[in-house]
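Dear Dr. H.,

I hope your travels went smoothly. While you were away I took the liberty of generating a structure for the chain from your last submission, since the lab meeting agenda had it listed for discussion. I wanted you to have the full record in hand beforehand rather than looking at slides cold. The sequence, exactly as received, is reproduced here:
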Amino acid sequence: MSQLDPAEIRAQASRALAEDWRVTDLTAEAVLVPGRWCRARIVSREEGVLCGSELAREVFRQVDPAVGWEQVVPEGERLNPGSVAIAVEGPAAAVLAAERTALNFLQHLSGIASLTARYVALAAPLGVVILDTRKTLPGLRHLQKYATRTGGAHNHRMGLFDAILIKDNHVDLAGGLAAALERARARQPGDQIEVEVRSLEELGEALRFQLGRVLLDNFSPTEVAAAVKLVAGRVAVEVSGGVCLSNLAQYAAAGPNFISVGRLTHSAPALDLALEVTPDQAGRAAAG
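The corresponding predicted structure, in token form, is as follows:
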């Protein structure tokens, strides 16, 4: 599992805190006795996969480096209802100031990792690799794709700059599939090209060209099986469109190499995590 760039962790935490904290928490200043110290636990209220710990830790560090951190459940490991994922200890005002921003990262990224893990668990026994897509929130792509990796998926292209994928709009604007492929091959002879096809007829046309992968767009499981038979191992086959947990096994059984799933990043529900202050420590004053 590739880790996030430390510089990006720092930058993302800083941007998130600028939205919420700005070095002032009016409520804590009004309510808490200066010097109040506390311990707290980040607890999972449902099953899932923990993701985003280093981001959350950086949030607490930027609010106050005095906040201590204990990673109880390792990043990428499974959580059960009631699991204590992380324990923190430090100035109460700092803990409460960092709480929401840290949880926002943890809940969102753990939600993506948890949903991804469910897809991977169904597809992997059938030899199919789950891929993510570019359907990510602006500014959060690296984080969201890190979360899919944490859940066991592989990253598809990170952006438009690192792979050629000829999609339906490219085909229509280029004057047809053959024209698009001929032009792409002439301009980028050394690159692996992936092309999206919308029918078995388009697939047959695409197979006349040197390709790295074909993307079957919104095929049914029966159509995928027919396409895999037609390809006969000449290129890798990716399936995209209409795949969900309820039909994933059918698609995987049809024999593709990859299944890409946009909902991993654009529709994953947040994992229910909460920060709970430990009652018997809530009243202790900070030393000194």
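Two observations you may find useful: The chain has two domains: 6-119+270-281, 154-260. The mean pLDDT is 94.

With kind regards,
E. W.
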